[in-house]
Structures are given as structure tokens and as C-alpha cells.
Design a protein that fits this description.
Strand content: under 5%
Bound molecules: FE2/S2 (inorganic) cluster
Distance between the termini: 63 Å
Helix content: 40-55%
Low-confidence stretches: none
Structural class: mainly alpha
Radius of gyration: 25 Å
CATH superfamily of one domain: [2Fe-2S]-binding domain
CATH topology of one domain: DNA polymerase, domain 1
CATH class of one domain: Mainly Alpha
Amino acid sequence: MLAALVGRTPAEWPAVTFTLGEFTLPTDLPLSLPSELVRQRPDVQTAEAQLHSANAQIGVTTAAMLPNITLSGSLGLASADGTLHPVQQGVIDEQGFQCAFCMPGFIMTAVGYLKTNPNPTRRELAQGISGCLCRCQDYDKILTAMMRGAENLRRSKLG
Ligand code: FES
């Protein structure tokens, strides 16, 4: 491990024997390790990516344990010709959900909220859909998708 931290292979690292009594601390210790430097390390970035992947897999695995049902996906919002509602299209445009278990609730809540405030700020829409929960905790992407949906809805009413 010490060899890797100084950029050498373990074979290049000389075997060192020491006792704990030989260690002394420098007089000036940094108060903190710059976290941005640590975040740039490839092993830290790999670990972070693995953590994100594992979190997603937990959501998918948990969903797989629940009863398997099939939803139509239209939520009664799509047109007779199959054209999606502008908010549904916003989800497609932004790929706004991870496992999508929470998607119907967010869409229906956003559609209802947008009837009262068709041109919300991001903060207002976040407040408007704040009653919905996402176990994948993908709120930023979801909010981006809902904002796109609001924009789609305004454009569809203009056209
Ligand atoms: S995207 Fe998985 S629960 Fe919301």
C-alpha cells in the first residue's frame, strides 16, 4: 500500500523494519486533507462509481422483490393516438428516472401542480412535487424532467 501511494510497485518497495517508537509527528500538521485532491484519485473515483452502481442495484433488487405488475405507462394522460402527455414526454426527453418505481406519482403530481402554476421556477416545482418520494433519491434528474415537462406543456398550448 505504501509503495502504491508513492507511485511504485510493491516489488520496488524496500522491506523496511521499524518500531512504533521510531515514529515522530511533524511539528506542523495540516488541519485537513484537501478533499478535492482525494476525489481526483482514480481509485476514489472508481469506488464512487461502484457505490453509485451498487445503490442503483439495491433499488432494482428491492423492486424485484415486490409483486411484479405491468403498468400501461400512459396513466390515462396519453392521447388516443398514443402521443404522450407533455410531462411524460419530458421524462423521456431527460431520462429522468433511475428505476422509475416512483415515476407515476411524480408525473401525476406534476401534471396536477402545473394546472395551478404552468410556469414554475425550479424551486416552485420542487415544492409542488415535494410530497413524492424516490427511493433511488434521483431528485435532481426527476426535477429536471418535470421542468422539461412543464416547458413541453407550455409549448403544446402555444402551438
Ligand atoms: S427512480 Fe427509483 S424510486 Fe424513484
